[in-house]
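Customer escalation, tier 2.

The customer says the design service returned an amino acid string that "doesn't look like it belongs to this structure." They asked us to rerun it and document both sides in this ticket. The original structure tokens are below, unchanged.
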């Protein structure tokens, strides 16, 4: 866990933020005593990327949009199809 004094942290904030985003925890010290830590904030949903699932869905039939018949709907809701 790297430690930087306040002046170093101020002068190198962009570098320290990059380190934190890379998974490191950065400690900021005053007169050699740790007073704060810098780490990345992670969202509860995790890191998402728009379009990350592109290409993972395969449409098996071109008529997938057609309505189900009553018989097909009954079977679907009964867990048989």
């Amino acid at each position: 866990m790297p430690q930087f004094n306040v002046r170093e942290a101020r002068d190198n904030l962009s570098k320290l933020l990059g380190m934190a985003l890379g998974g490191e925890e950065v400690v900021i010290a005053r007169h050699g005593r740790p007073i704060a830590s810098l780490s990345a904030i992670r969202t509860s949903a995790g890191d998402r990327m728009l379009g990350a699932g592109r290409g993972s869905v395969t449409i098996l039939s071109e008529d997938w949009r057609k309505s189900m018949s009553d018989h097909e709907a009954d079977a679907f809701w009964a867990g048989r199809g």
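Tier 2 assessment: The sequence is consistent with the input. The chain has three helices and three strands. The longest helix spans residues 13-21. Sent an explanation to the customer and offered a walkthrough call.
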